[in-house]
Write a structure and sequence with these properties.
This protein is of the alpha/beta class and 453 residues long. It is built from 15 helices and 13 strands. 38% of the residues lie in helices and 14% in strands. The chain is globular and about 55 Å long. The structure holds beta-D-fucopyranose.
């Protein structure tokens, strides 16, 4: 079923973006590489999770995914066809260090050499995310991110990878969406490793942030003149009514989603109101941790998909609030299409935290694509979603937000975590039986829009 967006579409103008604006697409290792146990790669928590019955829709796994590991050359050519200036991808930790730390797997490094060199040959700048949720299972078995030892292991991995790629890779993202890794994985239990415990989730969030802070100087040391940052998934939060109760509910929800990460990264420590709510579940913090987390970075990566509408509800969970499904346009994920939220968010982050540069490191939408009789995929809703959000970006630039680039999620349909292959976010359609790729209408539009002038 194809849905059509009813929101008024105003097309963005390329001339409203600076000449040196970075245009890209993003992916993540487990979502598209496949070759799960090949050439020395060992299992990650996502291999374990997806192979556990009932965890992922349809029993889907990333065993094969888009088979990007084997179809690398083809995909590099596709990226060139897209006119990408930059490509954001993540590295599979357990391909590089199958035991999580210690012995290095040369074959793993070779794959990323081929990827990075292939990008550079095509004049596409590689943007590397070190951690996009796929912790080596061996480290999970030893306590996972709830254990401080995993921070040390992550620094070892960071050192190995940046020593190896640091001469060619100059853009590094330490973590992708620590909120999801911490809370979807350890509080809600819907992502790997599937825990449901607030104290664990909060300790994980602290260790993720700490590992970020300690990795930044290592990356600068191994990769001269590199730009280093972290990517957060931020959701602007709106109170459903003007009541003071709803305002408090919205503020708490903002504390949970946004401030819990932004405040410590920008030197404000964990938000006091959240520490009070979390009480005894608050993380154990060692002297020096908060200073390490607040290390200076070169940019903030923001992933934006939707907003939250919140209202007070007595007795509803820890936050005494609930999300309201307001009238509007929704994607197949049931996420509201709300481009104004992106502009509001970018202005607020600039005003409250003043990062030197911001990149949208993910933005996109899932709809139920149909392959037409002519073989074309006319994904008008997704195309309009991109237009609306690029317009929101250009409005932010006008408002003096230091927005320097935009990465569409995603280069191609892929394994959408707990949703399996049902939720397609690609600018390129992937037939998961034949593994054939075909640019959708949205992809054609995007590649045309970003074409160097
Ligand atoms: C983000 C993830 C990314 C993808 C999109 C749809 O939360 O970073 O891997 O799944 O959502």
């Amino acid at each position: 079923m194809t849905t059509t967006l009813k929101l008024e579409i105003s097309s963005p103008h390329r001339s409203n973006f600076p000449k040196d604006f970075i245009w890209g697409t993003a992916t993540a290792a487990y979502q598209l590489e496949g070759a799960a146990l090949e050439d020395g790669r060992s299992a990650s928590i996502w291999d374990t999770f997806s192979h556990t019955p009932g965890k992922v829709k349809g029993g889907d796994t990333g065993d094969v995914a888009c088979d990007h590991y084997h179809l690398l050359e083809r995909d590099l050519d596709l990226m060139k066809q897209f006119n990408l200036a930059a490509y954001r991808f993540s590295v599979s930790w357990s391909r590089i260090l199958p035991q999580g730390r210690g012995a290095v797997n040369a074959k793993g490094l070779e794959f990323y050499d081929r990827l990075v060199d292939g990008l550079l040959e095509r004049n596409i700048t590689p943007w590397v995310t070190l951690y996009h949720w796929d912790l080596p299972q061996t480290l999970e078995d030893a306590g996972g991110w709830a254990s401080r030892d995993t921070v040390a292991a992550y620094l070892e991995y960071t050192d190995v990878l940046s020593k190896h790629l640091g001469d060619r890779v100059k853009h590094w993202i330490t973590h992708n969406e620590p909120w999801c890794a911490a809370f979807l994985g350890n509080l809600m239990g819907i992502h790997a490793p599937g825990n449901r415990d607030l104290k664990t989730a909060l300790q994980v969030s602290h260790h993720l942030l700490l590992s970020h802070g300690l990795a930044v100087p290592i990356l600068h040391q191994n990769s001269v003149d590199a730009q280093v940052g972290i990517t957060l998934n931020l959701g602007p939060t709106y109170a459903f009514t003007d009541s003071s109760e709803d305002a408090t509910a919205a503020r708490t929800s903002d504390g949970f989603m946004n401030r819990w990460f932004l405040d410590p990264l920008y030197g404000k420590g964990y938000p006091q109101d959240m520490l009070e709510i979390y009480g005894a579940a608050s993380p154990v913090i060692v002297a020096g941790d908060m200073e390490a987390i607040a290390v200076e970075t070169d940019f903030l990566g923001i992933n934006y998909y939707t907003r939250a509408n919140v209202k007070h509800k007595a007795g509803a969970g820890l936050f005494e609030s609930e999300q309201v499904h307001v009238e509007g346009e929704y994607t197949f994920f049931d996420w509201e299409v709300y481009p104004q939220g992106l502009t509001d968010l970018l202005k607020r982050v600039t005003y409250d935290y003043d990062p030197p540069a911001i990149y949208i490191t993910e933005n996109g939408a899932t709809y139920q694509d149909e392959v037409g009789e002519d073989g074309e995929i006319n994904d008008t809703s997704r195309l309009n979603y991109f237009k609306l959000h690029l317009e929101a970006c250009s409005n932010s630039i006008k408002a003096e937000v230091p927005l320097k680039g935009y990465f569409a999620w995603s280069l191609m349909d892929n394994f959408e975590w707990a949703e399996g292959y049902e939720k397609r976010f690609g600018l390129t359609y992937v037939d998961f039986t034949t593994l054939e790729r075909k640019m959708k209408a949205s992809g054609k539009w995007y590649s045309d829009f970003i074409k160097p002038e």
